[in-house]
Amino acid sequence: MSSVESKIVDADEAGMRLDRWFKLHFPGLGFGQLQKLLRSGQIRINGGRVKSDTRIATGQSVRLPPQLGGMSEPAISKPLTRNTIRDRNDADVLQSMLLHEDKKVLVFNKPAGLAVQGGSGLNRHVDSMLESMRSQKGEKPRLVHRLDRETSGVLVVARTRGAAAELTKSFRHRDTDKTYWAICKGVPRKREAQISTYMVKDKLPEGDMMRVAKHGERGADHAVTKYRVIDKAGPYLSWIEFKPVTGRTHQLRVHASHIEHPIIGDPKYFDIENWELPGGIQKRLHLHARRIRIPHPDGGMIDISAPLPPHMVQTFNLLGLDESDSEPIDGSA
Questions:
Q1: Looking at the annotation, which residues are catalytic?
Q2: What number is the average pLDDT over the span 304-308?
Q3: Domain membership flag for residue 332
């Protein structure tokens, strides 16, 4: 027989509404069921009664009634944090990230803070973790694109050599449609526009950085990004949808800074002096690979969206932003 359990609120979940927290952890629990459990006092925080719109805080204990024991959360709905990644083995972490799986393709929701490939001082990253998913033939899944370490969201991986070749070709020929969500400083004057620049890499003592190149500068690559302002929180912050046409390193982060609306929490390209984050917002990169549409190696399209990471869910809650307000650029479905 199931017994009463409790869950501790992680730091990345602080500020979330209680009903959103339950949607993340127990997607099978309907809103009406949640309300009934709250009204009867079967769900409590630190022993006290609460409402669905209660904001939760780090370290609080959420009482879970016995009937939730049968609603084991699907792998893709559990929010991963730095702590849960550290404490679990590679196979479990990848399973928790999984959004789509078939014989040729895997799609993951990469959490912020997890590197895609190895680098200086990095022992754990997606590429090394994929060793745990070798096939019976011994074939290891292959990366076909990458995300910055602090960028969360959709990451496509090929299961076979042939699938890797086809998917890589789609990225190279720009047959993919990628959508990113970001929270940026200020509100662009143009609500929808295209950014077109050349970009070049500078090798600096503190690490490589990309910048907008001067006209005719050697080694520069053309970079094009479409953007649209979805919503704003006063004149100080805006929710922007970016669509990269090209795929240059740090392209969206550099372009956001170039139009003087850098992505908040960006340690490299947020260059506004004496600007402070509004209270309650975590100083972490607010850039999320929300959706990808890419041809499947066997025909048809893969169309996958990734839930926001906990720190961006927290920010959306604090700013009163609603994910349902989003509409695709160019009206694409």
A1: 148
A2: 95
A3: no
